[in-house]
Amino acid sequence: MENRTILFVDDEEKVLKSLQRGLLDEPYNLYFATSGKEALDILEKKEVHIIVTDMRMPEMSGLKLLKIVKEKYPKIVRLVLSGYTQIMTLLPAINQGEIFKFITKPWKLEEEFKSVLQQAVEYYNLRAERDTLLAEVKKHEEARV
Q1: Across all residues in the chain, what is the average pLDDT?
Q2: pLDDT tens-digit profile of 52-96?
Q3: Number of folded domains that form the chain
């Protein structure tokens, strides 16, 4: 199976550099953006399967970014990586299916973060396989008519 692409969005470059170093040996294509606008620019040019964003960023919050991503790119699995843990702010987004998982800062790379990324990849792969099978069933049904 092809390597999946993950886009990380955080206005703190040290966080992005830490992720880049920590995930160097992982089988993913990695992109990094320091703002929601930069992330949207990348999404227009590159195929991305998973997005991981901070919540609190200047100009565009992570929540606003995820709402745009859900609308324009609904197949992308959306995760939040944030030290901002006000659950009442996040609960509506989680309940509306805008967020697959929430990871709190600071994170434990080996024990927690990598396994959450793997879960997101597996979730994406399962949905992609389901969509392919549904398309095949529809094609066979149409051929019968």
Answers
A1: 87
A2: 998 888 889 888 899 899 999 999 999 988 776 666 666 666 666
A3: 1
d(CA 40, CA 108): 28
Measured in degrees and rounded to the nearest 5, phi and psi for residue 80 equal -120, 135
Is it the case that residue 43 has pLDDT exceeding 90? yes
As a three-state string, the secondary structure of 7-75 is: EEECCCHHHHHHHHHHCCCCCCEEEEECCHHHHHHHHHHCCCCEEEECCCCCCCCHHHHHHHHHHHCCC
106 preceded by a cis bond (ω within 30 of 0) = yes
Look up the pTM and report it: 0.86
Q: Do residues 112 and 81 make contact, with C-beta atoms less than 8 angstroms apart?
A: no
What is the pLDDT at residue 113?
Answer: 84
Please report, for the domain that includes residue 24, its CATH number. Answer: 3.40.50.2300
Query: For residue 42, what are the domain limits?
Result: 5-144
